[in-house]
From TrEMBL:
Protein name: Heavy metal efflux pump, cobalt/zinc/cadmium resistance protein CzcC
PANTHER family the UniProt entry points to: OUTER MEMBRANE PROTEIN TOLC (PTHR30026)
Entries under InterPro entries matching the protein: OMP_efflux, TolC-like
Cellular component annotations (GO), alphabetically ordered: cell outer membrane; efflux pump complex
Molecular function as annotated in GO: efflux transmembrane transporter activity; porin activity
Chief location of this protein within or outside the cell: membrane
Annotated localization: Cell outer membrane
Keywords: Cell outer membrane, Membrane, Signal, Transmembrane, Transmembrane beta strand, Transport
Highest taxon of the lineage: Bacteria
Key word Transport present: yes
Length: 464
């Protein structure tokens, strides 16, 4: 396997942990991994903004909402017609041949009619279609934002899984070497059987952790590939401006005005009001006007051909009006309710994201301090054990605690970067978020490369 270069500092602490590179007594060799070779990443990391554009091109919601918008625009153009519908043809034929007098009486009758707009109904129909087209466009922005949140969640899960895989792999490799050294020491009579059992248990626990991490990495990678169409992992670790991210959440009116969810709710309210106006204009079925002709063959009749006009007008009725008005008023009420709830959701979400970002920043600092202190403690216990002043199980527990602290620091670091990007998404300041029709070519995924020799003992995490 090959890890991207950003995981090199991650392994530095693991290899520098007590027992990972410290010399053992004379019978032992070294606990540092030497069988792995450095293989730098073949390609540059995939920027998150590029990955978002790539995922948007593959998102089925984009096609659906584009179709909805085009359909609404077509309805708006059709509403500019002179008539409320297409023409209707009506024809009839009568004679007295089969039954009756059989005197040769024959009548042919035909009519063409068209429905008429009621007063203001045509412009109201066009207004509804235009409002629905605007709603579909704003919903596309809302879907784009939702996709960014989903992509961020999948990216953070995949990055954390890769970090955990690298950490558990290095820890397992080191515990395997430790177990081999303790086995030789036990055979030579320099340590007890209990120490060997402790080393063996530590190795098996590390193997279980590595297996679980490998499964998690494969699962998260599959989820991410479903969004991107490629196994690339977007890079969010270059987002490190905590104060700038917090400043984007400082103005609630600005957040609300830029949020596509509220824009979509407002356009839906406008569409509902337009639909209510249309329902009031459609207070009765559309009247029809037409032109008809009659051709007759009758004995001695002077009226062989006749032409005339026809007019049909159904009268208003509550049976027709009440359902239309009721449905339109229900739509207005639902739209108003959704707009109010969206206002509340944005306000609550802004406070929640801000709190998460502050907590993630503080948590990152705390976990870095904890990992450093536990590493130093494990180093001191390691030296004490070599002087036969400390039992081996204390050293093993200290090493396990340092390893656990390293995992907690990795989680805190990814959570910090994720919180920053989430704040940028909420404030619509993430580059490319509002570009709904961006296009990008598929980018090759960076492969995994596990380094062998590392000098640094701490990750180069951007200072919060």
């Amino acid at each position: 396997m090959r890890l991207p270069a950003r995981f090199y500092p991650l392994l530095a602490l693991i290899y520098g942990m007590p027992g990972f590179g410290m010399p053992l007594p004379a019978h032992a060799t070294t606990w540092q991994v030497s069988s792995l070779t450095v293989q730098p990443a073949a390609t540059a990391p995939l920027p998150f903004t590029t990955a978002l554009a790539q995922a948007w091109q593959l998102d089925p919601n984009r096609t659906t909402l584009t179709t909805n918008r085009k359909g609404a625009e077509a309805r708006a153009r059709a509403a500019g017609s002179w008539f409320a519908g297409g023409p209707s043809l009506n024809g009839s034929y009568f004679d007295d041949h089969a039954i009756g007098s059989n005197e040769g009486y024959t009548t042919y009758q035909g009519e063409v009619s068209v429905p008429l707009w009621l007063p203001g109904q045509g412009s109201a129909t066009k207004a509804v279609a235009q409002a629905e087209a605007n709603t579909a466009e704003k919903r596309a922005g809302m879907a784009h934002m939702a996709l960014a949140v989903n992509l961020l969640g999948a990216t953070s899960a995949a990055l954390l899984a890769q970090k955990r895989l690298a950490t558990t792999h290095a820890y397992y490799t080191s515990t395997a070497q430790i177990c081999a050294d303790v086995t030789r020491a036990t055979t030579a009579g320099e340590t007890t059987q209990a120490d060997l059992q402790q080393a063996t248990a530590t190795q098996e626990a590390a193997l279980a952790d590595n297996t679980a991490a490998r499964e998690e990495a494969q699962t998260t990678a599959a989820t991410l590939e479903a969004l991107l169409g490629s196994p690339a992992i977007p890079d969010i670790e270059n987002f490190s401006a905590t104060e700038s991210a917090l400043n984007t959440l400082s103005s609630l009116p600005t957040l609300e005005s830029n949020d596509p969810r509220l824009q979509a709710a407002k356009t839906e309210s406008a569409a509902a009001q337009a639909a209510l106006k249309l329902a009031r204009r459609s207070f009765m079925p559309n009247p029809e006007i037409g032109v008809g002709a009659i051709h007759e063959k009758q004995y001695g009749s002077p009226w062989d051909n006749r032409v005339g006009i026809s007019f049909t007008m159904p009268l208003p009725s509550s049976v027709h009006n009440a359902p239309l008005l009721s449905a339109a008023k229900d739509r207005v009420a639902a739209a108003d309710q959704q707009e109010i709830l969206t206002h509340r959701m944005i306000k609550q979400e802004a406070a929640q994201i801000r709190a998460q970002l502050i907590a993630a920043t503080q948590n990152l600092k705390a976990t870095k301090i904890a990992a450093t202190n536990l590493l130093n403690r494990a180093t001191l216990l390691e030296r004490s054990w070599k002087l036969r002043e400390t039992p081996f199980d204390d050293v093993a527990r200290a090493r396990q605690m340092a390893y656990t602290a390293r995992l907690a620091q990795d989680k805190a670091e990814i959570a910090w970067h994720t919180a920053i990007v989430r704040a940028l998404i909420a404030s619509q300041t993430l580059p490319g978020l509002s570009t709904l029709h961006a296009s990008t070519a598929p980018t090759q995924a960076p492969t995994l490369a596990i380094p062998a020799a590392l000098d640094s003992l701490e990750t180069q995490t951007p200072a919060p």
